[in-house]
Automatic annotation (TrEMBL):
It comes from the Bacteria. Belongs to the DapA family. Gene3D superfamilies: Aldolase class I. Coiled coil: none annotated. Keywords: Lyase. Pfam families: DHDPS. The keyword Lyase applies. The keyword Lyase applies. This is Dihydrodipicolinate synthase family protein. InterPro entries: Aldolase_TIM, DapA-like.
Length: 307
């Protein structure tokens, strides 16, 4: 069963804009050294829309090879059509991955019948996979309601998890788990771990944040599961300012923090993101410095907060 911290890995780029495969290996190594319970690639936080088919396939194989069976790999297979999602799922199977995460495209609509047909076509075409139904909020996602998700999942045994990241996600997680079909193994939280305590208290089996503070998120997860809610809350409180900033700058923030931690050499992105100016970087550095005692994996190379 998937559980715990399952970060979505970013795609690192060299200064010339090409994919940096060596850096991708370092990201995987960092995640594993942090004690994560699985990794996700590619996802929206991987800038998947900016990767061509060759890049996407080679990076997924790199991740699978580097993980070498130590933790589960969840492959993103979202696409504008069922046919493309099927192709991504088959590529994942060929790479040795059996769990794929798929968000229904908005073009399908939001009715239970239409979305169920989308997932049904995928499950029929690639019967060896388990599906994580990703439910993202509008405008990126379809913002499916819990009753719709339950109807879809109940009719499709291949859907074994739901990643619930609508806002607020808490009531939806409660509703899904209260009425879930027997084959649905769990609900995974999204939202970049900005609501992880609430999600866990409602019964979420895991979380899919970004990877830049995976070691802290693992410590939070372990504290919660051991019954030390006070420690979990303290770790959450001390890192929440960073996650709030991450919500604005997304992958650029993740890569900047990874560069400050010695994992990456730049924070280049292909996606069109808000630019981070000197004040933004100074604020990130200040919060990283305040949380530096929590950063237990790899090198911590932080400038002084006043620099």
């Amino acid at each position: 069963m998937l559980k715990g911290i399952l970060p979505v890995l970013p795609t690192p780029f060299a200064a010339d804009g090409s994919v940096d495969h060596d850096a991708m290996e370092r990201i995987v190594d960092f995640a594993l050294a942090s004690g994560v319970d699985g990794v996700v690639f590619p996802g929206f936080a991987s800038e998947v829309d900016e990767l061509d088919g060759r890049e996407r396939g080679s990076l997924l194989r790199l991740v699978v090879d580097r993980v070498a069976g130590r933790v589960p790999v969840i492959a993103g297979a979202s696409a504008p059509s069922a046919e493309e999602a099927i192709a991504h799922a088959r590529e994942a199977v060929a790479a040795g991955v059996r769990i794929v995460m798929i968000q229904a495209p908005k073009s399908v609509g939001v009715t239970a019948e239409a979305v169920a047909a989308f997932y049904g076509a995928i499950a029929q075409a690639v019967p060896e996979i388990e599906i994580v139904l990703q439910n993202a909020p509008a405008p990126r996602g379809s913002d499916l309601k819990p009753d719709v998700i339950l109807t879809i999942a109940s009719g499709n045994p291949a859907i074994t998890y739901v990643k619930e990241e609508t806002l607020p996600a808490g009531p939806a997680i409660t509703a899904i788990l209260k009425n879930k079909p027997a084959h649905l193994k769990g609900v995974i939280g999204g939202g970049g771990a900005r609501y992880v305590i609430d999600e866990y208290r409602r019964g979420a089996c895991g979380a899919m944040p970004a990877v830049e503070i995976a070691d802290v998120h693992v410590a939070l997860d372990r504290a919660f599961r051991s019954g030390d809610l006070a420690k979990a809350r303290d770790l959450y409180m001390r890192t929440l300012p960073l996650l709030v900033i991450q919500a604005n700058f997304r992958m650029a923030f993740t890569k900047y923090v990874l560069s400050r931690r010695g994992i990456l050499t730049n924070h280049a992105s292909r996606a069109k993101l808000p630019p981070m100016d000197a004040m933004d970087l100074s604020e990130i550095d200040a919060w990283l410095t305040s949380a530096s005692s929590l950063l237990t994996t790899g090198n911590v190379m932080l400038r002084g907060a006043a620099e």
